[in-house]
Design a protein that fits this description.
CATH architecture of the largest domain: 3-Layer(aba) Sandwich
Number of strands: 10
Distance between the termini: 32 Å
Number of domains: 2
Helix content: 25-40%
Shape: elongated
Strand content: 15-25%
Strand order of the largest sheet: 5-4-3-6-7-10
Number of helices: 9
Order of helices and strands: HEHEEHEEHHEHEHEEHEH
Radius of gyration: 23 Å
CATH topology of the largest domain: Rossmann fold
Amino acid sequence: MFSDRQPRSFLDPAALARLAGVPLVARRPMVGSVSGRHASPHRGSSVEFAEYRKYVPGDDLRRLDWRAFGRSDRFYVKEYEADTNLRLMLVLDTSGSMAYHSIKPAAVPGVQPLSKLDYARRICGGLGYLASQQGDAVGITCAAGGIVRSLPARRSPAHLRLVFDVLDEAAPAGPTRLPDVLHELAETTRQRALVVIVSDLFMPPEDLASAFGHLQFRRHDVAVFQLLDPQELAFDFQRPTRFLDLEGGGTIFADPIEIADRYHQAVAAYLEQLRGIMLETGVDYHRVATDGPAEQVLARFLVGRAAGRSLR
């Protein structure tokens, strides 16, 4: 692991060492500033053949295919896929609802339950470290009622430490206006990027659809980790409880047994609508329960992308 000035609670060196063998790849061609491992929309020099095209004056004569000339009596140039570096833009939801965590023990014995924000730190920290290790640029934006804090994507260990500082200092507070932040990022992030959004997505799905479409229109590769606490899904409270809106909307005192059926129906409808939007917009969507190991979540994400690239 690269040298850091302080230990980071959200980084597990052993887990990152196990994950380092699987590259973080983009599903879309990237436009970078240096040579790297990611496909570019431009043609260049690499080992992967792309296509033939007719020779035009000024082309590099070393790229002429003399066998094609012998067969057709015409000059053709070999085109190859250009490889470039990636821009990873992490978008971390720091609204008040990200402070929630179960009062029950985590599924893994001996592991304390994490808040959604603490779990998000592990996802963002792991991806940032892995991207930096393969020479890619990393940036981060914290979003709540607006952009709370933002660092552009850059390639250097010193900049990665700044990204980790932002993760360390992130605090859950305020309402969720993530779609507005995504629209702003779509307009201000000029070069193509892998935009990884880590949030509980507690907002109207139709607002997210518009924001995802905007990012896709700008040629960004969009991935979403939706973090949900198991108790938010199970809703297995057994006695009258006061429910607090962590984003400032007041409290409700209710008997969970009386409202459980309606709650489960509302959550199921919301998740189904959200799933449909992810499919329509082509977002790389991962629903994550925060009582499981973050390493497994990252491994599935990395392996899925690497497998997808091998099929192209």
